[in-house]
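Predict structure. Input: Phosphoglycolate phosphatase, 226 residues.
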Amino acid sequence: MTNFKNIKAIAFDLDGTLIDSVPDLAAATNATLAELSLPLATEDQVRSWVGNGAKTLMRRALNNAMNSEVSDEQLAETMPRFMHYYGEFLEKHSRLYPNVLVTISALKQAGYPLAIVTNKPYEFTVPLLKAFGLADFFDHVLGGDSLAKMKPDPLPLTHLLEQWKISSDELLMIGDSKNDILAAKSANVAVIGLTYGYNYGEHISVSEPTAVCDDFAQIGQLLLTK
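Output follows.
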């Protein structure tokens, strides 16, 4: 079993890690496509497109619907509509994954500083955390547009290292996609990969995280069991 005894702080991804947000992302995507009179996407398709931020999600949806590469100008024109619809659907169908609230609460009570590091736009991240009763647990919330670069770039994690004044071996990243694993490895921090989220159809173990968990409760077992 991997030893996490040196860990002093924890960063979490959001979509596919804490919250299954695909149903609302799919609703917003399809509302946008419908307005443009384009073919709609399935929820499974949207599930395979998320993870690299809202703009990449919409680019993939438009490419699929048009069966061609969308131009940057077309994408720029479409994004305000998608952002509008996602704001409307933000918390209507999303749900917490099992054992998230109790585990996050236990980690916070144990004294771990916690942060969110997501590629979701910041303007949607905070309301979503509030909607599910998670906002008060996190000392830092970094959206995909909070810094100059987002995952898989290590910048969000190195930013946290500076904010918390800790070394790389004292930070743990927890996420569900290879973007989380790549960012953590580039920042030289430990990373737990979750098997149930969104990872482009690839098992998270392929990216070789420090540890793999099938259930969020296992994180508590790794960090809180002495």
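The two ends are 12 Å apart (CA to CA).
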